[in-house]
């Protein structure tokens, strides 16, 4: 059974309110049927309420981070339940920028994944290796550990409510993309880890995206690979026409 493709934009810390609204108005009516391809924009938290209010039939809005606790004395943080109460449907968890600059660990990724699923938000769980690891030839071992830790104490039923994004750190925002073969090979390795953790059904059904300098020129070759189910896209998701081209490539 073919997995439904998903294209998720990660705006990072770009755009002002007017830019964000202009983007939504431009893409809303153009994005393809959500039953054929899922189109998601993961926006800065401050824009989420305005974007969810204006999201069209086929576009969904996601957050870029959340706290793992249900609630509590965590000044400045946002919980999964708060996101849900505003109609947010996805959240990026464990992006390498958050791991590098904001102390995100495999343990907090695991807790966030569980909290998101508990309130029916789909976590997009990011894993990926550094250039040193890739060059040392230990990518599969490192990514295996990240997956095992992220899915600790997560049932098969809940694992199916998540999406994995394989994002080699050396390819994010650098203009250097993993070759389709490299990306597919690592994603196949991730699927085999998931099969060991759960079973064949979960490993065949769970969607695994590739992320790292995806753009309108390389998207077709990446999406043509057997195990790449979509893309998590930073830079090329900022422009409405570019985002629409990426989404249409998944049709
Ligand atoms: C990302 O932010 O997840 C990402 C992959 O960025 P870029 O597409 O700009 O490399």
Automatic annotation (TrEMBL):
Pathway: Carbohydrate biosynthesis; gluconeogenesis; Carbohydrate degradation; glycolysis; D-glyceraldehyde 3-phosphate from glycerone phosphate: step 1/1. It is an enzyme of class 5 (isomerase). One of its GO terms (cellular component) is cytosol. SUPFAM superfamilies: Triosephosphate isomerase (TIM). One of its GO terms (biological process) is glycolytic process. It catalyses: D-glyceraldehyde 3-phosphate = dihydroxyacetone phosphate. Homodimer. This is Triosephosphate isomerase. It comes from Peloplasma aerotolerans. The lineage of its organism: Bacteria, Bacillati, Mycoplasmatota, Mollicutes, Acholeplasmatales.
């Amino acid at each position: 059974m073919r997995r439904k493709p998903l294209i998720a934009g990660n705006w990072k810390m770009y755009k002002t309110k007017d830019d964000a609204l202009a983007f939504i108005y431009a893409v809303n009516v153009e994005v393809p049927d959500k039953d054929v391809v899922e189109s998601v924009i993961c926006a800065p938290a401050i824009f989420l309420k305005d974007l969810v209010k204006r999201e069209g039939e086929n576009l969904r809005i996601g957050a870029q981070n959340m706290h793992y606790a249900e609630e509590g004395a965590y000044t400045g943080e946002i919980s999964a339940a708060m996101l849900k109460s505003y109609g947010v449907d996805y959240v990026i968890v464990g992006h390498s920028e958050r791991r590098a600059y904001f102390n995100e660990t495999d343990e907090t990724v695991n807790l966030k994944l569980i909290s998101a699923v508990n309130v029916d938000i789909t976590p997009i769980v990011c894993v990926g290796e550094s250039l040193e690891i890739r060059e040392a030839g230990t990518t599969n071992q490192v990514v295996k550990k990240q997956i095992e830790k992220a899915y600790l104490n997560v049932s098969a039923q809940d694992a199916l409510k998540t999406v994995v994004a394989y994002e080699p750190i050396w390819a994010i925002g650098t203009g250097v993309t993993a070759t389709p073969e490299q990306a597919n090979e690592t994603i196949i390795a991730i699927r085999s880890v998931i099969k060991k953790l759960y079973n064949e059904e979960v490993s065949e059904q769970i969607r695994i995206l590739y992320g790292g300098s995806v753009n309108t020129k390389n998207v077709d070759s990446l999406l043509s690979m057997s195990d790449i189910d979509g893309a998590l896209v930073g830079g090329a998701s900022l422009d409405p026409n570019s985002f629409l081209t990426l989404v249409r490539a998944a049709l």
